[in-house]
Every structure is written in C-alpha cells, then in structure tokens.
Design goal:
The radius of gyration is 20 Å and the shape is elongated. It contains 9 helices and no strands. It is an all-alpha fold and 210 residues long. α2 crosses α5.
Length: 210
C-alpha cells in the first residue's frame, strides 16, 4: 500500500520518467534495427564475414554496461549529452540478437524454395524482398523482441550517467534505502518489458509463415 500511495503522489514524475525510458529504448531499438538487419543480411550472403561480425557483437555484450558508459564518456560529441551516450550504448547492446536472428532467418530459408525462385527468373534483390525476407521475418522479429527486453533493463542503468528514465527512481531508492522508491522504478520497467515482449511476440506469430 505504501508503494501504491507513493506512485499516486508522484504520478506526474512516474509518467515523465516512463516516457524518458520509452524514448531511450525506442530510439536505440530503431537504430539497432537499421544497423543490425542490413548487417545480418550482408553476412548471410557473405558467410566468411559472419564469424567476425557476430564475434564483435558478442564482445560488446560481455562489456558491463556501467563500464561501457564510462568508456564512452570521453568520446567527442557522444559524451557531451548523457541521453545521446545512453542511446548509443543501448544500440550497441541490442545489435547481437538482431544480427544473429537476421542471419539465422535468411540462412534458414529452405534452399529448394530459393532455387525454385531463381528458376522462375527472380533477381537476387527480388529473391530477398519477395521470398527470403517474408519467410524470415518472424525469426528477425524474435531477435528484435529480445533486443527490446534487454534494452528496457539496461536503460535503467543509464540513470547513473544522468540520462533519465525509470532508473532515476531505482538509484534514488538505493541511496535512500527506500523500497517504495526502488519499486517505483523497477515495477514500471518490468511492465514495459512484459508489454514489449507480448506485443512483439503477438506480431511475430501473426507474421510467421504458415
């Protein structure tokens, strides 16, 4: 009940920080899709590049988020604004599942279907747009789904560098040793992650080839 009372008393700030959180996650996910899907498509057609690209994305995942924020702080332009730095870092963390699932989805298309499409006279670009991408879209969306859930959680840590978001409540609550304030950040973040997971999961099932 104390937690509910705290939310009601501070609903304006909760909404404001939730919108900031959505902004960080939404923009970083869009950027990760714009970079990750073309990279996944490229390595699916140039298999020799798949190992170094996926290894690079894997290495980024192993770097602790606070350490990555610290490494990026001195970088010109990025370090000048905390939200800009946080979005860049979240984009890097979201790349792995998107690149990997795009690669897996395209490579997983039945070779017989690909050969049949080529036999019908489709060019490589037509083959990609009309056959491979429609068949792989649900696998790609599965990667986007994972990326969003990861980003929602990591975006709470962005508050440590002043980027805003629901992590503001979590860090404030830790400093005050106040569970109400911690939960005011943790519970809305968990709800956002669940909502994104369910929403993208529903879209993934709708677009799955039958």
């Amino acid at each position: 009940m104390n937690f509910v009372r705290f939310i009601l008393q501070n609903h304006t700030q909760v909404l404001e920080l939730t919108l900031e959180h959505l902004w960080l996650v939404g923009l970083s996910t869009i950027l990760a899709v714009l970079v990750g899907v073309p990279l996944g498509l490229m390595i699916s057609h140039r298999v020799g590049l798949s190992r170094p690209v996926l290894a690079g994305a894997n290495i980024i995942q192993t770097v602790p988020s606070l350490a990555l924020f610290g490494f990026l702080l001195p970088v010109p332009w990025l370090g000048e604004r905390s939200d800009r730095l946080a979005i860049f870092a979240l984009t890097l963390y979201a790349l792995l599942p998107i690149i990997r699932n795009t690669y897996t989805g395209i490579r997983g298309v039945d070779p017989a279907v690909v050969e049949a499409a080529r036999g019908m006279g489709l060019t490589e670009s037509q083959l990609l747009l009309q056959v491979q991408l429609p068949l792989a879209v649900s696998v790609i969306l599965s990667g986007v789904r994972v990326a969003i859930v990861i980003s929602v959680g990591l975006a709470t840590i962005a508050a440590a560098i002043g980027a805003g978001g629901l992590g503001e409540f979590i860090f404030r609550g830790l400093a005050m040793v106040d569970n109400r304030v911690i939960l005011a950040g943790a519970i809305p973040a968990a709800i956002l992650a669940l909502a994104a997971d369910l929403g993208v999961g529903w879209l993934e099932k709708r677009l799955r080839p039958r």
